[in-house]
Amino acid sequence: MAKDLNILRYTQVYPNGGCTMETTTIKIYEKTKNQLDLYREYKNESYDEVIQKIIFIAKTAKKNPKLSQETIEAIEKARARIKSGKLITEEEAKKRLGF
Question: How many structural domains comprise the chain?
């Protein structure tokens, strides 16, 4: 199941390599901000990154609902592993993948 997911595409928030973009300010309710915080995967993740991920998930859900559900489940499992401290280093991942 997870091997069919294109996680790289999911995690690639900025298609242009993270170049500086124009910014704007938006007003959101505190409740909305708190809900966005639940989707942050790391402390310094920007709200723009969080919103981009949510947009990606919404677009994917519209195009392919079954894959979207699998993606969401895989993300939730990964987040649970991260929170529980079950991580591997980049070096360990490279060894496992044969790099």
Answer: 1
Distance, in Å, from the CA atom of 65 to the CA atom of 50, rounded to the nearest integer, reads 20
pTM of the model: 0.49
- Cα separation, 51 vs 40, in Å, equals 10
Reported as a single tens digit per residue, the pLDDT across 70-93 is 777 888 888 888 788 877 778 888
- State the Cα torsion 43-25-38-88 to the nearest 10°: -30
Structural domain boundaries, residue 39: 2-12+27-97
54, 61 contact by CB (below 8 A): no
